[in-house]
Amino acid sequence: MIHPPTWHADARQPGNHAMSVRTRFAPSPTGFLHIGGARTALFNYLFARHHGGTYLLRIEDTDRQRSTPEAVQQILDSLAWLGLSPDEPPVFQASRETRHAEVARALLARGSAYLAYDTPEELAAQREAAEAAKRPFKYDGSRWQGLDPKDAPSVAPAIRIKAPREGETVVEDLVQGTVRVANGELDDMIILRSDGTPTYLHAVVVDDHDMAITHVIRGDDHLTNTFRQCMVYDAMGWSRPRFAHIPLIHGADGAKLSKRHGAVGALEFREQGFLPEAVCNYLMRLGWGHGDEEVIPRERAIALFDLDGVGRAASRMDYAKLLHLNGVYLRGSDDDRLTRDVLERLGRHVVSFGTLGADRVRALMPVLKERAKTLEELAASAAFAVIEGPPPLEAKAAALLTPEAKARLADLAQFLTDAPWERADLESWLRDYAEVKGLKLGQVAQPLRVALTGSTQSPPIDAVLWALGRTEAMDRILAAAEG
RNA sequence: GUCCCCAUCGUCUAGAGGCCUAGGACACCAGCCUUUCACGUUGGUAACACGGGUUCGAAUCCCGUUGGGGACGCCA
Fold first, then answer.
1. What local confidence, expressed as pLDDT, does residue A426 receive?
2. What is the per-residue burial (b if ≥16 Cβ within 10 Å, else e) of A17-33?
């Protein structure tokens, strides 16, 4: 019967450092790290930090067919980008197979497990028969138990753990609450395959135990597996960790999150111009809340986060809200950092530029970042500043360059020749010009904007004028006036 | 099919029996600001899945229904 081990309570006593919190994120390197996994990592990180504990990473690479070194690197890169790198070097599960086998044999020696000589084909047939008869398949290994090795078939055996038949298993889940299942539902699962490799359900338990994990925080999809894992803990006489099963993230339509919903890989968000702090903030708020707080930077998140605030229902990915949050973080970001990123993106988009262009982008950054939601948008909006010479004209912008507008620009160029080149001065010169000519400021600003940026949308025109510098600005105005 | 979990505006959530005429955020609509686009700001539309209990009183507790999700591998 299952009661939380007493040290769990002790661990929460202030002043008890003997059993500090240890969490782990345990992805399998069979693909890229998706957004759901990223959130699981985040919760593990936040929980450990909040309690002054340790946050670890274990790569579950026991499936040798599907695990790849590229995927491992991808996961590491993703976590690094999100600021969720582990406190210690990652543990590779495959490297611990000797230990897994050792525990399996210990279970055998204790009489808690037995050798099962079924072939995969036999099992598949049994499963099919059960399905055909519309009854749930439950493995029956009674014929192998207590078998004299001499009578064993000449088949490499797997090791199966004996499931309890009576009573029920109870898990006090930190998120889901008390969850119980009748032991009659469990069956004798394989812990060591016939080829000597461990199964996931077994390896996880051995590793979590050996790594002294105190809190297993993972996706909801592992909830029912937890009862199977309990069999190993209990049979070995190990105290179980605390479990916390967090709900999954779904796509906007409520179905399992997949590529057709948009970006799902953590690194895809980076490519699309999202900031890691915005992604983390968004992910944290998905399934967790603290009153009305929405913008919660890392430090604040660590201070606030705890598992009791995690909801039990699955939530849907809302890209619009992420986008909004990204805008918030973008506006609050350091100008030098943004400039660096934008220049890099522009370079990738095959725009060549010199230091003059780079300086202009930096000068414009405070007003540029006000009007972008992603780094990609930011880069696009900075493109006019980085190039030399007249910018390419957008269709809508070109339409604005009427003969009158061109004449106006020529006149304006003349007028600006003697202007002092400071932003505030430029603004008042433009206002004066409009007033003298009996025009609304917009009538002057729009043609000018088109000439300088090639677009009908840009930061305030005085800022653009100033950042471009007198020479470059004059070039562009004249080019537009003559073109 | 069996077992497990879940259920407040379109979405993320606040809500731990009276503070709820159900609050906030995103999105959407309208207005203001304005030099374009954003930002900002003001207001608006919009939810307790359904049915039974328990209680003086239920979004909050219990049961059922419906609807979602997950797990049932010599995958992880």
1. 96
2. eeeebbbbbbbbbebbb
Phi, psi angles (nearest 5°) of residue A433: -60, -50
The answer, yes or no, to whether residue A188 has pLDDT greater than 90, is: yes
Q: How far is the CA of A16 from the C1' of B26 (A)?
A: 43
The pLDDT value recorded for residue A467 is: 97
Instruction: State the pLDDT at residue A313.
Output: 92
A259 given a catalytic annotation: yes
Query: How would residue A124 be classed by pLDDT, with cut points 50, 70 and 90?
Result: confident
CA to C1' distance (Å), from A39 to B33: 39
Question: Is residue A418 over pLDDT 80?
Answer: yes
Residues 271-290 of A with CB under 7 A from strand B: 285-290
- H or E stretch at A319: helix A319-331
**Locus of tokens 């069956």:** A187
Burial class (CB in 10 A: 0-12, 13-18, 19+), A365: buried
Q: Which nucleotide is nearest to A254 (CA to C1')?
A: B68
Which positions ≥6 away from A367 have C-beta within 8 Å? A459, A460, A463
What band does A149 get if pLDDT is binned at 50, 70 and 90? confident
Cβ of A207 near strand B (distance < 7 A): no
| Residue nearest B3 (alpha carbon to C1') | A185
Q: Per-residue pLDDT for A382 more than 80?
A: yes
At A406 the three-state DSSP class reads helix
Q: In the structure, how far is the CA atom of residue A190 from the C1' atom of nucleotide B26, in angstroms?
A: 47
- Decide: CB of A127 under 7 A of nucleic strand B: yes
Helix axes A423-437, A441-453, angle to 10 degrees: 130
Which residue is catalytic, options A259, A321, A437, A440?
A259
pLDDT tens-digit map of A2-36: 333 333 333 333 444 457 999 999 999 988 999 99
Single-letter residue type at A258:
S
The reply to whether A199 has its C-beta less than 7 Å from any atom of strand B is yes
The per-residue pLDDT for range A321-363, each reduced to its tens digit, is 999 999 999 999 999 999 999 999 999 987 889 999 999 999 9
Cα–Cα distance measured from residue A458 to residue A461, given in angstroms and rounded to the nearest whole number: 7
Q: What is the pLDDT of residue A438?
A: 94
Nucleotide nearest to A202 (CA to C1'): B76
Beta carbons of A277 and A294 less than 8 angstroms apart: no
DSSP E strand boundaries for A226-293: 242-246, 249-250
Q: What is the dihedral of CA A276, A52, A232, A187, to 10 degrees?
A: -50
If you search the block for the tokens 């620009």, which residue do you land on?
A: A409
Residue A477's Cα: distance from chain center in Å? 46
**A297 CA → B44 C1’, Å:** 31
